[in-house]
Amino acid sequence: MFKRRALAVVGVLGGLAALLTYSACTNKAAQQKKVDIGASQSIDELMKARGLSDMDVEAALKTYVPSGKHDDYMIFASGGHSGQVLAMGVPSMRLLKVISVFTPEPWQGYGYGGESDKVLAAGSQGGHRLGWADVHHPNLSETNGDYDGEFLFVNDKSNGRVAVIDLKDFMTKQIVPNPLVGSDHGGAFVDPNTNYVIETSQYPTPLGRGYAPLSEYKEKYRGLAMFWKFDRKKGRIDVAASWGIELPPYTQDLADAGKVGSDGWAFINSFNTEMATGGTLEGKPAIESGASQNDMDYLHVINWKKAEELVKAGKAKEIKGVKVLPIEVAADEGVLTLVGEPKSPHGCDVTPDGTGVVVGGKLDTHATVYEFSKMKALIDGKKFEGKDAFGIPIMAFKDAIRGQAELGMGPLHTVFDDKGNAYTSLFLESKVAKWSLKDLKVLEKISTHYNIGHIMAAEGDTVSPDGKYVVAMNKMAMDRFTGVGPLYPQNFQLYDVSGEPMRLLLDAPIGIGEPHYAQMIKVDKLKPAKIYPPGTNPYTDAKDTNAVEGGKEKVVRNGDVVDVYMTAIRSHFTPDNLEVNEGDTVNLHITNLEQAEDMTHGFALNMYNVNISLEPGKHENVTFKADMPGVFPMYCTEFCSALHLEMAGYLLVKPKGEGDADKDKDKPKDEPKTPAKDEPKTPNK
Ligand code: CUK
Ligand code: CUA
Fold first, then answer.
1. What number does the ligand 2 atom closest to the CA of 568 have?
2. Contact 136 CB / ligand 1 (< 6 Å)
3. Residue-wise burial string across 327-357, b where 16 or more C-beta atoms lie within 10 A, e elsewhere
């Protein structure tokens, strides 16, 4: 025990270990007590006082990141229903930022009157402004199958949307609503060079979201694989160049893109190939049992490079302006092929070398590894065992697989390390199974607490995973934390997988939920900006046409439209007092003139729901209608200097009938003011 601890300490923190002068062969408590850590207590005394074991101390030493030191990895984790994405450091598991994506977020001034309102509005579905999202699968942009640290994509399962986050400034730049599907799930996944952001539907609906009764489910309901073209130069999805493939009304689930030899292909697992539609009140089986009748569902194997050619050759039909390759074409041309998947499949993960696809089974004890080369040969040779009800060819299961790994109860998702091992989450067993891709044999298992869903590993689904760390994203936390009421914290558990056995290092409750997937990237691949060049509009990535320079501030009135060109710098706004008339449309153009790191100013205008964040150099345009007369303090919401509280001003909205705000300026100061009630009501100019 003691020897192991000494070695671990040396491995993790050589300097400290030397200081502690642990001996590998002695176990004398007396010698221990000599270790003075500078706070009058020895390590042993501290351990005793806090009830810590050797393993606890080892875990602490492996995860503690001293103040001022940085983490080695960054996690981008789904924020679940919050609609946001969490950025966390590894190994400390410190939360660094909640990136606002689909949901307004006040601190980042996201959705409170500024330019970000346009991004959120563009994410409307069916004319409805959506106030939440169910984020499932963040995916980092890749170059040659490796994370390149430039962009992050996430999907909103509930409303069928995909968002683009630019990792230059960790801001959401685009939300693209899918006009065809009712919900999505597989995705956002990228191909190895991020040509496409792939989004696949979940619950089938009529494509284009029209009406069709459930009795016409088989005829009218469909799934979809959407290929959003990514324009890396612009950093945006090019909606016009995007297209889809019509899928049968099975419930498509997780998806992954092929890599290396399987680049150009995509794989989607599915369930409910029974096409059950429920009807519990009418005494019909619920979807849960209706969808669990067949022993096999279908893995969808898609040749997207071929689909792309067919779309370009005009073989697609248009639905709501989107080019969609019909099922018949996809089936006949070898674009879409099926192969059986055992018992309630879940998870769909391509191995780092691109040769295998791992699919779990919620009601199975195996993970199945499909062999890409075998499937390719079957498809090329047109060797099928039959067709499904939609005419899609089906490969024989036994001919398409490398084998099955007997892992335990309820395997879901799989990630990989640098030594040819796979790590699969076992939902029902609450364990992580480590197994070898070579012989599909389990090497070891470790408990999670509890009901693990997704799992992530350092660079775990690139062509060159790092190993080192695995994180379990658990569905339950039960006894892990101090109670906070019946809605329990969501818990990430960090494991050290650098050696054997695997070790649990740290619990990280995250405060929001429910997260699904996450990816972990080496921090040296990220090159985030520290400031913006002066006057930058982050949504155009260019200097805003309304950017304001110091000394050029002004107020311009045009009828009942008032344009205010304002600057912010420690610790004042110029202008700081604004006077407008009730009913005016007010456009605030505010540039933060600061070029010093972390000199962010906020701009809040009370009662008008305006709150924006002005990072150094950033420009924002805010528009609101001054429909509430009165006096409204406006102030900086970031504690930017000793005189931050003084960084304030007033918006005066003159009630209708009290005279024109501008006109008053020209009146001689001593002219007696006419009471409002005596004035004729005149419309504001
Ligand atoms: S799903 Cu959540 S645990 Cu949406 Cu990726 Cu498997
Ligand atoms: Cu600027 Cu506080």
1. 1
2. yes
3. bebbbeeebbbbbbbbbbbbbbbbbbbbbbb
- Sorted by sequence, the CB contacts under 8 Å of residue 386 that are 6+ apart come out as 393, 394
Of the ligands numbered here, which is closest to the C-alpha atom of 362? 1
Whether ligand 1 lies within 6 angstroms of the CB of 207 is answered as no
Range 251-269 average pLDDT: 98
**Banded model confidence at residue 295, pLDDT cuts 50, 70, 90:** confident
Tokens of 39: 């706070």
Q: Beta strands 236-247 and 322-325: pairing type?
A: parallel
Which amino acid residue places its CA nearest to atom 3 of ligand 1?
A: 453
The correct answer on CATH 2.40.70.10 for the domain covering 73-212+223-525 is no
Q: What is the C-alpha to C-alpha distance for residues 335 and 316, in angstroms, rounded to an integer?
A: 13
- What number does the ligand 2 atom closest to the CA of 571 have? 1
Q: What is the pLDDT of residue 38?
A: 57
Q: Look over the chain and give the mean of its residue pLDDT values, rounded to a whole number.
A: 92
Q: What is the pTM of this model?
A: 0.91
Gap between the Cα atoms of 367 and 440, Å rounded: 9
How many other C-beta atoms can be found within 10 angstroms of the C-beta atom of residue 531? Answer: 19
Give residue 36's pLDDT. Answer: 53
Lowest mean pLDDT among 304-308, 364-368, 527-531, 659-663: 659-663
Centre of ligand 1 to C-alpha 682, Å, is 60
**Residue 213 binned pLDDT confidence (cut-offs 50, 70, 90):** very high
- For the stretch 430-460, pLDDT in tens is 999 999 999 999 999 999 999 999 999 999 9
DSSP state of 159: T
pLDDT tier for residue 292 given thresholds of 50, 70 and 90 = confident
Confidence of residue 1 (pLDDT cuts 50, 70, 90): very low
CB atoms within 10 A of CB 560: 18
**Ligand 1: distance of its center to the CA of 504 in Å?**
22
Pairing of strands 431-436, 421-426: antiparallel
Domain ranges in the chain? 2-59, 73-212+223-525, 536-678
Residue 346 tokens, joined: 């879940």
Out of 12-21, 157-166, 546-555, pick the least confident.
12-21
Q: 169: CA distance to ligand 2 center in Å?
A: 20
Class for the domain spanning 536-678: mainly beta
Nearest CA to ligand 2 atom 1: 601
Q: How many residues belong to the chain?
A: 685
For residue 341, the cross-strand partners are 297
73-212+223-525 and 536-678 have identical folds = no
Please indicate whether residue 81, judged by its CB atom, sits closer than 6 Å to ligand 1. Answer: no
The answer to whether the CB of 539 falls within 8 A of the CB of 119 is yes
